[in-house]
Amino acid sequence: MEEPEPGAEAAAPPGLRSLLPPRDFLGSRKGQLLLAESVLSFIIFICYIASSAASFMMAPLLEFLLALFLFFAYASKLNEKFKGLYWPLTDFLRCVTAAVIYFAISIAAVSKYNDGASKAAGVFGFIATIVYAIDFYITFNDLVTFLKQGNSESPERRKSE
Fold this sequence. Notes:
It is a single chain. The protein has helices at about 25, 30-50, 60-75, 80, 85-110, 115-160. The protein is mainly α. It is globular. It starts with about 20 loop residues before the first helix and ends with a helix. One of its GO terms (cellular component) is membrane. Pfam families: MARVEL.
């Protein structure tokens, strides 16, 4: 049996690893929040499918797909390639609506339905509400910082013109 060369491990063939997001994005705060949102939304979706509150399953499914799309969009740096869409504002609106919707359907699932899957979906929904609220708070602070920079630059542009 031949020993592999020392540099052969570092240059692994680009198979399924090319689909995985980079490690630096997974280590970032935004990457971790989007991953947590995706996982929680998927768990809530599965709980609602197994419960008698199956009418609530569409909201977690949509939030799962949106969080997954933004996770891979930020990981592959689509936000830098497509400048026509203001990504932080889109992400902020997604987080605000998701937090409100999860809070509302979690209250309904916990108070109205008696089966265990509905209760579990409600508890995970409250946890998802907190995660989405943290995400929109951080995104809101980034938006405010950006808007303050934009307002301070506009008088300088007028003077230069």
